[in-house]
Amino acid sequence: MPNLAMTKEEAKNEYGVEPSDDSLPKYPYGLTLYLDDDTLKKLGITDLPKVGTSMPATITVMVTGTSQRATQSSKEGEQMRTCLDLQITDMDITMPTKSAADVLYGSSSNS
Hints:
The protein has three helices and two strands, in the order H-H-E-E-H. The protein has 111 residues and is of the alpha+beta class. It has a domain at 51-95. The chain has a two-stranded antiparallel sheet. Strand 1 and strand 2 form a beta hairpin. The radius of gyration is 20 Å and the shape is flat.
């Protein structure tokens, strides 16, 4: 599975400035999902994971739009931009499991 993080060059092209390690978003616009209370309930998520936790997710999407557009760039001349609009219709997220020690004694990483 490809990692969609932007390279420093891609970030510079996107935002017009040389990025420092933490100054700009790591991923392009449009790749963040915001799940509200109702959606979390449908997914069965009652306890929120820690920020930075990586979790596998399976989604089904429906294509809701496609487009191509020619744009003028001062460096490269004319460029063709291609876009794909996707609507998530079904999703499953696998929540991280706690070890028996964490359940019995609490996580030592919270100290």
